[in-house]
Write a structure and sequence with these properties.
The complex is a heterodimer. By secondary structure, chain A is α+β, with helices and mostly antiparallel strands. Helix content of chain A is 30%, strand content 24%. In chain A, helix 2 runs antiparallel to helix 4. Chain B is built from six helices and 17 strands. In chain B, the strands form three sheets. In chain B, strands 1, 2, 4, 9, 10, 11, 13, 14 and 15 form a nine-stranded antiparallel sheet that branches. In chain B, helix 3 packs antiparallel against helix 4. Classes of the chains: A alpha+beta, B alpha+beta. At the A-B interface, helix 1, helix 2, strand 3 and strand 6 of A face helix 2, helix 3 and helix 4 of B.
Chain lengths: 205, 370
């Protein structure tokens, strides 16, 4: 009789222990990022770097020149049929800044130029497209103001270490250019052509 | 038998209690571990700093309004200041509509207003003939460009091939010292200090160089590569990159005088904007130079002056989910040093006496006496 009671006691004790261990194990927090190679720190840092890159490019005019770095049909120089760059930044100062900030660290970036059309839609023009971003991508954006007499820009001087794009004589509002065209402004006489948004999306390869 | 029975009885339900307490320890361990993991997760979330986006909006608005002001100043021939200002207001309204669409996507309300009468009239001095040298309308080679005015956006564009001659660094240093006259230089004097900036083509390296001299022995040089060079003196850049020789611009205080020397030794274009009304500005400069300094209309020749917007004040509103930010900012693209505190003189009448009034500064107050 007492033997059975001892056995029962040992059984109950072991059951209790097992249940406690099982409960403790399954209650452990699994955060959304626990299973991925990308941590929140890295995402924050990449987002801040992208912000800094855009601010630096805007400060010395490279961002505006890169936005206007197209030929008369609105294709970026040197992109062939796609109309966007697929192997790094564009061949101008903005591209040099992007490459220096991201390429060497194994971080990939897409650059989009968003602009509004007459019907209020926001259209997206790809400047650099290197694939669909992963789930852990971060983005930064900056607005660029374009006025009627801004000119398109052409390839930089090959001797120029800073790769500053050279201005051409084709103004934005001339007949041959339909870049970032906001048809509402045709005929308006206040000089503003459009306000575009440059968006940089970065993620780890 | 009794002994065995008693020792067993003394143990009680020890195994049960031992198992129970171990289970409680494991659950407590899980609790502590969870709180550590969750704390780290909370701590590393982006703070989504709303003040950051508000500051970015302020910067974008400043740059946008500045671009519009520059466009309005550059175009339209000899329009009056009020024409230019109303076009600027229309453009800002349009900018506001476009920007508000982008902000709405992010759940923000942004507004920018250019109120009536919030601008300061100025004058834009332009030489847009690339084949002309930097002499005045009357052909003087040493002349005053602006006298006692706040200046912004002083830019020059030169082509390497257009320089009549190349000089070496030593000759330029002598020129800046005053011993020779072999290179073009601009002198900027803010009442307390004076600087000279020479632009020349170097005979040794065959590149366009900029050399600055602060009249106490300090020379500093920057070089530009390429055929055509853009020198932004108030922006302290040479071809878009920062130039150490021009960093004295940071030390300029409110109003300054600019004069050109040996202006026949450089060919190209330049422009600057001053905060003086066109009429009084032209008369004062003509009096200083003893002759006609500027043409009146674009197309008459180079250099000419047109009325322009010197600066404007815009009102910004930023309304986000957790931050509301309203402010007034002054837009003056390309302005060096501190903001202007001197009020602009729009009109001056003299009564009795004859001849111009003389002006003296007494701290922040300007006194005029016959």
């Amino acid at each position: 009789m007492r033997g059975q009671a001892h056995t029962l006691e040992a059984l109950v004790a072991s059951l209790l222990l097992l249940a406690g261990v099982a409960f403790a194990l399954q209650v452990t927090t699994v955060t959304p990022l626990s299973a991925s190679t990308s941590s929140q720190h890295i995402e924050n840092q990449q987002g801040a770097t992208a912000d800094g890159v855009l601010a630096a490019a805007a400060e010395n005019g490279a961002l505006k020149r890169a936005v206007l770095f197209t030929d008369d049909e609105g294709n970026f120089h040197g992109t062939g049929n796609d109309g966007y760059y697929t192997s790094g930044g564009p061949p101008n100062r903005f591209g040099a800044i992007l490459n220096r900030a991201f390429e060497s660290r194994g971080i990939v970036f897409n650059v989009y130029v968003n602009y509004q059309t007459a019907d209020g839609l926001v259209k997206q023009k790809r400047m650099v497209y290197r694939g669909v971003p992963s789930d852990h991508a971060s983005a930064a954006s900056k607005k660029v103001t374009l006025v009627d007499d801004d000119v398109l820009h052409a390839d930089p001087d090959p001797n120029d270490d800073y790769e500053v794009a050279k201005p051409t004589a084709t103004a934005l509002d001339s007949e041959s250019s339909s870049l970032y065209r906001d048809a509402v402004n045709d005929g308006s006489d206040d000089g503003l052509y459009n306000v575009v948004e440059v968006e940089v999306v970065v993620w780890r390869m | 038998m009794a002994d065995v029975a008693s020792s067993v009885r003394e143990r009680g339900q020890l195994i049960l209690i031992g198992g129970l307490s171990l289970a409680v320890v494991f659950v407590a361990l899980a609790l502590v571990l969870n709180s550590a993991i969750y704390t780290e997760n909370l701590a590393t979330r982006t703070s989504d700093n709303p003040a950051d986006t508000a500051m970015q909006f302020r910067h974008d608005a400043l740059v946008g309004a500045g671009t519009v002001i520059e466009h309005v100043n550059r175009n339209g021939g000899d329009r009056t200041y009020s024409d230019r200002y109303s076009e600027y207001q229309n453009a800002v309204d349009e900018w506001q509509g476009l920007h508000a669409s982008y902000s709405a996507v992010n759940g923000l309300f942004t507004e920018i207003r250019a109120p009536d009468g919030a601008g300061n009239e100025g004058t834009r001095v332009v030489d847009d003939d690339p084949g002309s040298n930097y002499t005045s309308a009357a052909g003087q080679t040493d002349w005053t460009v602006a006298n006692d005015a706040q200046i912004r956006q002083l830019q020059m564009n030169v082509d390497k091939g257009d320089f009549p001659s190349s000089v070496d660094d030593g000759t330029v240093k002598d020129t800046l010292d005053g011993a020779e006259n072999s290179a073009f230089y601009a002198e900027i004097d803010d009442g307390a200090d004076s600087w000279r900036v020479a632009v020349y083509r170097d005979s040794n390296t065959d590149e366009v160089k900029v050399m600055s001299y602060d009249l106490s022995g300090g020379f500093s040089t920057c070089t530009a590569e390429g055929e055509s060079v853009q020198i932004d003196i108030t922006g302290e850049t040479l071809d878009g990159t920062h130039c150490e020789a021009l960093s004295f611009v940071d030390d300029l205080s409110n109003t300054h005088a600019i004069s050109y020397h040996n202006a026949h030794l450089i060919f190209g274009t330049y422009e600057l904007t001053v905060d003086r009304v066109e009429g009084s500005f032209r008369s004062e400069v003509d009096a200083e130079n003893g002759g006609s300094t500027y043409f009146d209309n674009p197309g008459d020749g180079a250099p000419y002056t047109t009325p322009a917007i010197y600066s404007a004040t815009i009102e910004l509103v930023y309304d986000g989910p957790s931050v509301t930010y309203e402010t007034e900012v002054r837009v003056a693209p390309g302005e060096p040093g501190e903001s202007a505190v001197a009020p602009p003189v729009a009109h001056l009448d003299t009564f009795g006496g004859s001849g111009p009034l003389s002006k003296e500064h007494d701290g922040d107050v300007t006194r005029w006496s016959p």
